[in-house]
Amino acid sequence: MDNSEMQQHDTRASEPHGGADVLSSVVNDAVTIEREDSVGWVVLTRPAQINAINDDIRSGVPVALRELDADPAIRVIAIRGAGQRGFCAGADIKERRGAETAIEVRSRMQGARWIEAIDTVRKPVIAAVHGYCMGGGLELALACDIRYAAPDAVFSLPETALGLIPGGGGTQRLARVVGPGRAMDLLLTGERLDAGAARDIGLVTRIASESAALVDEVRAFARRIAARAPAATLSVKRAARGALDLELKQGLDLELDLFAMLKPSEDAREAALAFSEKRQPHFIGR
Predict the structure, then answer these.
(1) φ/ψ (deg, to 5) at 80
(2) How large is the average pLDDT for residues 276-280?
(3) Member of which family (predicted)?
């Protein structure tokens, strides 16, 4: 669905969210975009299936991410699952194909590496996780920059019990997030972690005060980030992400280049002036 088609589906939410009107855009039957001031939401909308991954989610999530990343009014993106039961239960088993050769499977999976769309997003991406976050759902959350969990969240990569391994980046991203030892433990056993255990190993960084408060707390957290200088936010994400892929010397060079670019910026000057005048800065993204 292109931008003009999406605009035809725009509707104003009847109720304000967190004090702001919500502009909703339907991408397809499984994915909706919501805009609340500077925060953009990608919402998985298959609650009856615990937002299990089907072709609509695979195609719709990258569209939604590109749309929000290109929107100058949006400074932070968050992903959540609709319904009470969970963020995402993994692949929809009803969509399992018949017998395929290894070459056929690899060809199909190569063309459907939809989770990697998050890697190209310049803005911070938060996973707001409640209930079940299993298999491909956890792989989606792992690709995000920050994972914010409800107390009822449950995390697992159970693929080895199905005679498989994670195929959406789980073996690679989990090790980067929690370290190779803990990752190997979870990958081999498929053990389920509750929110507290997930935070203990660094899989999530924040837990909501209660499950019903998750969306409100993630919204407030996202707005805190959005209130920072936009160019600095984009740059710090780029530098920190670079730490995962670059040699230390290359990463340090990138950090220095970005710092030097930001130092003479209008936002940096505004921050210094606001500090001296004892007021909140007004950032314009330059």
Answers:
(1) -140, 165
(2) 87
(3) Belongs to the enoyl-CoA hydratase/isomerase family.
Token pair in block for residue 102: 């290894």
Residues 46-64 have a mean pLDDT of: 96
Note whether 148 and 208 are within 8 A (CB): yes
Report the alpha-carbon distance of residue 62 to residue 10 in Å, rounded: 18
- Amino acid letter for position 136: G
Give the model's confidence band at 282: pLDDT under 50 very low, under 70 low, under 90 confident, else very high. confident
The catalytic residue positions are 139, 159
Locate 1 and state its tokens: 């669905």
Tokens coding 255: 């950090």
Q: Residue 172 has which token pair?
A: 């690679």
Query: Which residue ranges make up each domain of the chain?
Result: 3-226, 230-276
Tens digits of per-residue pLDDT, 4-14? 334 334 443 33
The pLDDT-based confidence of 84 (bands split at 50, 70, 90) is very high
Q: Which residues are registered as beta bridge partners of 133?
A: 88, 155
Whether 199 and 207 have beta carbons less than 8 Å apart is answered as yes
- Homologous superfamily assigned to 3-226: 2-enoyl-CoA Hydratase; Chain A, domain 1 (3.90.226.10)
Handedness of CA 84, 88, 91, 95 (dihedral sign): positive
Strands 146-149 vs 206-207: parallel, antiparallel or unpaired: parallel
